[in-house]
Amino acid sequence: MGDSRHQLFQQFARDQWGGFSKGIEKEGLRVDRNGFIAQTPHPRALGSALTHPRITTDYSESLLELITPVCNSTEEALAALWDTHHFVHQHLGDEVFWAASMPCQLDGDDSIPIAEYGSSNIGQLKHVYRQGLAVRYGRMMQSIAGAHYNLSLPDSFWVQWQTALEDKQRLQDFKSQQYFWLVRNFRRRSWLLMLLFGASPALDQSFVANVRHSLSRLGNDSWYGPEATSLRMGDLGYHNNAQASLNICFNELPTYTATLAKAIHTPWPEYERIGTRRGDAFIQINTSILQIENEYYSAIRPKRTTERGEKPIQALDARGVEYVEVRCLDLDPFSPVGMSAPQIDFLDLFLLDCLLSDSPIIEAAECQYLDDNFSDVVSHGRQPAATLETQDGALAVSDAGRQVLDGLESLAAKLDDLSGGERYRQALSQQRQKLEDPALLPSACVLQAMERAGQGHREWVLAKSIEHQQAFRDRRLSAETQARFESLSEQSLAEQDAMEAEDTQPFATFLEAYLAD
């Protein structure tokens, strides 16, 4: 079936191919000039974190999140990300935008300010959700940053693809089915992205103060995993016993939303003991395994744009899958914007192949070893003897990687034929070079750069961050782009003011209705 799907796609002509729609969400900490997490509020010149379409905060007030619009090319997406970074750097004063996924210097939970979104009920809900994350996981997890890559295919493609497959469903249902087809194969292969793009093998000692871990000492103020690719996606990242009890099904949309909904409505004893309030202040939305859908951390999510007040599950059930969000990407500390064009082009190629390759339902036994493969590459992916579990037995990570890349050759050639040029073959070649020479893997490059500089994690990342900042400040945004960002900031502040003026319902009443919906 997979070969026939590839063969069907090979028949597409240039005038039938609508290309990819893509977007990037890039997180990063604001830090002071000493490499300590910023204690200042979200800069007002950047607008309202609640309503700004391009600049917001993630879990912490100090954790910026920069969002591109939906773009039709890699160049457009990166240009949008560069412009947003450029504007942000103008308004950081003496602060610096941290370049790495693992955080700067911290001083325990109290040093990490929880994000604030104002007094509207939606704003308070966002803040209480983050308070819930703090009481459930601790605030340290809120300081980790990453990049999310969003990809979709236009309806013009889906209509032709449905015809080619002789499928008779509603287009909405067909698209959802096909996106889950892609998601299943992504889960089978996501370990490869951790090998090729994992860039967080080390961290500052303050992140693991008073925490048991198996890392090795690196200089006086850092720890590292000698064979690790991404500490961000390992045991020090988001995980806890409650989420470990979940069995979220990624096989199809109805079971995916049903299992998520069950987690949101299933009480967890530890969270029940904590309760939802301390005095009059809310400290979590509910006492279930998940407060809301977004609390479940996965390497990929099927997504649908929500309307104001609408929950992600409701949007998916009502209108189907709109795009997929790849969430396992570390920031590239060597790039001023955290990602590069060859990486994006490879992700497009990789995700399309996940759609075109055979993708049977994932049974429980396979699900377990897929999780183990991902975890093993995160922790030991650069170990020369590292292996993966497959249906045919153990396979060396390097050999498994070559198999995947070999399978992408004909598709890369086809995409280059459809779009013109050699960008996909070049992106594929760049990843192949990493497998042939593991010293080129980003995780290895980070450790090599730190060693050459004679610096620990904090000192090296701070120097890199200042270097990036200077590159932005040495250039000026065009007057038109500058005015557009200033207008967006002003509009977002006015929109938040209007929301707060219109909200007369007490938050407790609002939350009760939200939970009952």
From TrEMBL:
Pathway note: Sulfur metabolism; glutathione biosynthesis; glutathione from L-cysteine and L-glutamate: step 1/2
| Record-level Gene Ontology MF annotations | ATP binding; glutamate-cysteine ligase activity; metal ion binding
> Could you tell me which InterPro entries the record lists for this protein?
Gln_synth/guanido_kin_cat_dom, Glu_cys_ligase, Glut_cys_ligase
Write the protein's name.
Glutamate--cysteine ligase
Protein family per UniProt: Belongs to the glutamate--cysteine ligase type 1 family. Type 1 subfamily.
Gene that encodes it: gshA
Listed Pfam families: Glu_cys_ligase
Which principal EC class is assigned to this enzyme? ligase
Keywords (alphabetical) are:
ATP-binding, Glutathione biosynthesis, Ligase, Nucleotide-binding
Keyword Cell wall biogenesis/degradation (UniProt): no
Question: What sequence ranges are listed for the domain Glutamate--cysteine ligase?
Answer: 9-377
